[in-house]
Task: inverse folding
């Protein structure tokens, strides 16, 4: 299996359990590792034979932009569910970070494997 990745995709959205986090978008950082067979794309030089990381990044941003979650766990599951709708994706590792949630930390968040 091959890996397509996105590291530290920066966007913003409504995410958090505190009232101030539910009022205005805050920074959210997403990293993903997609397990897929990209051998056909490698042989044919045809992006349609692979998972397009640009399309995937746009999907992640769109979902976060339109969502309102209290927990990072719920957001990560919603992203995973949508990403895994693509039958070419065989596995997914996803990391969601809130860079400004804890002042003494560079970031906090959740990692999931599906």
Result:
């Amino acid at each position: 299996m091959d890996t397509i990745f996105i590291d530290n995709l920066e966007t913003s959205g409504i995410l958090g359990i505190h009232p101030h986090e539910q009022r205005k978008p805050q920074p959210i950082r997403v990293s993903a590792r997609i397990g897929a067979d990209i051998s056909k794309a490698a042989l044919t030089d045809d992006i349609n034979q692979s998972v397009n990381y640009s399309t995937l990044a746009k999907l992640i941003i769109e979902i976060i932009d339109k969502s309102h979650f209290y927990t990072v766990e719920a957001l990560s599951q919603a992203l995973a569910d949508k990403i895994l709708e693509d039958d070419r994706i065989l596995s997914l590792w996803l990391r969601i970070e809130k860079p400004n949630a804890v002042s003494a930390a560079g970031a906090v968040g959740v990692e999931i494997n599906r």
Observations:
- The chain has one domain: 2-113.
- The domain at 2-113 is CATH 3.30.1130.10 (GTP Cyclohydrolase I, domain 2).
- The helical segments are 19-23, 39-44, 53-66, 72-83.
